[in-house]
Amino acid sequence: MWPTRSNRFCPGTSWRSPKPFRSDARFDSNASVGNAADEPTTSTGESRVRQRLGGSRRRRQTTWHCRLRRGSRNGFVFRRRDRADVADQRLAGAGGDVGVLLRRTRLESPSRIPAVRAVFGAVGPGGLAVDAVGFDQRILVSTTRRRIRASRYRSGVMQLYLIRHAESQNNARPTYLRVEDPEITPVGRLQAQHLADWLATLKIDAMITSPFLRTLQTALPILTATQVNLDVWHHVFERGGCFRGHDETNFAGAMGMGRAHILRLLAEFERRCRLEASIDDSGWWGGRDRETDQEAEQRAKRICDRLLSTFQNGEVVVLLIHADFKRLMLTEMIGETIDVTGLGPMRNAGITKLNRIDERWQLDYFNSVTHLPAKLITGNEH
């Protein structure tokens, strides 16, 4: 009856052991069993479980097991063993709707954090619908660790997301056809929408962008998907500033968008957008010559210092910027330990996350594009 072949979905089985599959995990929880009315926040599924098991207030020590059995409707059999001598109930997976049951567990943390468990719809004796707690300890551990990390970050660790803008016309065309302030392409609009959908899952405290058209257009879907405010900082523009031309022989400074132009672009979200006073109607760049590399490095250092002075209470900050300036900021933040120049191209809408821990920046992940379909991954840097 029991499978003996190794199966990547069932790591407890083996070639030589015909013993029943039993997960390595045993989830023990000291859960008070009582009436659902005693705890208003209890879910409907948990209430049904409590009503079925009885209304006593004694504490039960419960261990959930899972094993694989051929012939069952969804392959899994759940057995609840109760140390309080409550009769065992064998819950066969019914393959019905998947629910979510929140239970509280003791963590290796000063506080108790509710962890989301994988829950499978099951049917108990007499066809009564019961929620059975999930089977894989790895799910519990990984979920719990993420909750602990999130709690720690919110208690004073700044989280910074450095995100390159979506694909622009300059990224999609040859270098000699570049213009001073291009808009994003149709591919870029799709990238921006996928980015917005991903950022909507975060609790963002601040979003900052440059005054370039491509970063502002990247920010629009994010403003639609979230309630975050947008700050347009004057000095987070791309290295070199706003200029036309493709080599040193034909570089020429451009004006850049003026304040009124930017406000028209953001008119739908005007109450949630703030522009720095230094951006006026004459254009944020003002036709100056191209910025030198040394000036760009000094500017990156000033922006890093400004972030630290502005956000000091564990905020989650999103910074929509450009490939070269993102590389300059990473060099300033983690350049002593990592050679940023050897990390490869910065992908459009690629996400790099850093945490400010113990007075220093720590790289969490670099250039992530897992929120994008494969066909939308681009990364030309011109």
TrEMBL record:
Lineage per the UniProt record: Bacteria, Pseudomonadati, Planctomycetota, Planctomycetia, Pirellulales
MF terms in GO: phosphatase activity
Pfam families assigned: His_Phos_1
PANTHER family named among the record's database cross-references: BROAD-SPECIFICITY PHOSPHATASE YOR283W-RELATED, HISTIDINE PHOSPHATASE FAMILY PROTEIN-RELATED
Source organism (scientific name): Roseiconus nitratireducens
A GO-annotated cellular component: cytoplasm
Protein name according to UniProt: Histidine phosphatase family protein
Location of the region described as Disordered in the Swiss-Prot/TrEMBL record: 1-61
